[in-house]
Amino acid sequence: MERTLVIIKPDGVQRQLVGQIISRFENKGLKIAGLKMLQVTKAQAQKLYEAHKKKNFYAGLLKFITAGPVVSLVIEGVQAIAICRKMLGATFGPDADPGTIRGDFAASISYNLIHASDSAESAGYEIPIFFHPEEIISYQLNDSKWIYHPEEEKELGV
């Protein structure tokens, strides 16, 4: 099983899209292992976007992610990182395909609703910015046997 960080950004919260976005991950068969609403601090924002520190849009990233409450999630599942990234769609709303979160809800380049870790390394770095280990819950979904066929689980090494 793989874990990834997903953040529904201030625009997603203010537009009251949280429930619709979370339901997409659950409907796909992914598991919510951690969930909280918070106001991102400047220190958290700086750590999250550290890779962009020298880029001209860095200040805007910090200002936007700290502009209002966000909903942070730890999502778990087989290939969770790749699945979540695909579900988000292209970074900029106008470029995102219909059927993706950004394709269905984002029309802006700057307001793109959601963040998700782009690799296992990023997830390992980003999750602790927002979650303490005891805030991430391990549990078995009752319907998990209906999400992956046993032969697929063998192939995927689950």
Question: How is this structure best described in words?
Answer:
The protein is globular and about 50 Å long. The chain has 158 residues and is α+β, with helices and mostly antiparallel strands. The protein has eight helices and four strands. The termini are close together. It has helices at residues 10-14, 18-28, 42-48, 58-65, 80-88, 101-105, 120-130, 150-156, and strands at residues 2-8, 31-39, 69-77, 114-116.
Q: Structural class from helices and strands?
A: alpha+beta
What profile does the largest beta sheet have? Answer: 4 strands, antiparallel
Could you state the order of secondary-structure elements as H and E?
Answer: EHHEHHEHHEHH
| Intertermini distance | 7 Å
Number of helical segments? 8
Identify the overall geometry: globular
Question: Helicity level, as a percent range?
Answer: 25-40%
* Largest sheet, spatial ordering of strands: 2-3-1-4
Average pLDDT figure: 93
Quaternary status? single chain
Beta content comes to 15-25%
Task: Give Rg in angstroms.
Answer: 16 Å
Q: How many strand segments?
A: 4
Query: Spans with pLDDT under 50 lasting ≥5 residues?
Result: none
